[in-house]
Amino acid sequence: MDFVKAEIKEIPDIMNIIKNAQKYLEEEGIDQWQNNYPNPETLVNDINNQNSYLIKKENKIIATAAIIFGEDPTYNLIENGEWISKGLYGVIHRAAVAPEYRGRGIISLIFKKTFQMGLDLGAKSIRIDTHQDNSSMQRAVKKAGFKYCGIIYTKDGSKRLAYERLIGR
């Protein structure tokens, strides 16, 4: 499997994965990604900022994520806890896996690639957040060694559980 940066021409295929994830979350009764987010404009922004990554198998997109290093304003305020580290960190946003590859460890591959990117950039940690009802993502982040740190709020005011994992050498 290949871990590569996304290109604008791949937005329709990436959106298919995101739409499937939105449908899955809705079917599971999880009020996450139900407000036209992420959308093509979000992906264009991620790609233009060199933050959109894909997992491809035999040249087919099977997963997507935005991986961003540097301060994320969403993470400036944390309630009922605190971040583990200070300094440069990366954030994983908008991670989704194609339906036929769910449960096969693809998200853990995204995590591993992000940890390596962070090490290469000298980051101290990786952060991620998820909806309080998204138990499958909560299990995945805990399995990958992330520690629960507290509550953050997205731009639209939605509450999210926030996690962090140290990656230093």
From TrEMBL:
Alphabetized Gene3D superfamilies for the sequence: 3.40.630.30
PROSITE patterns: GNAT
Record-annotated N-acetyltransferase domain positions: 1-168
Key words, A-Z: Acyltransferase, Transferase
InterPro entries: Acyl_CoA_acyltransferase, GNAT_dom, YpeA/RimI_acetyltransf
A GO molecular-function annotation: acyltransferase activity, transferring groups other than amino-acyl groups
Taxonomic superkingdom: Bacteria
SUPFAM superfamilies, per database record: Acyl-CoA N-acyltransferases (Nat)
PANTHER family reported for this sequence: ACETYLTRANSFERASE
Protein name as it appears in the record: Acetyltransferase (GNAT) family protein
Organism for this UniProt entry: Halanaerobium kushneri
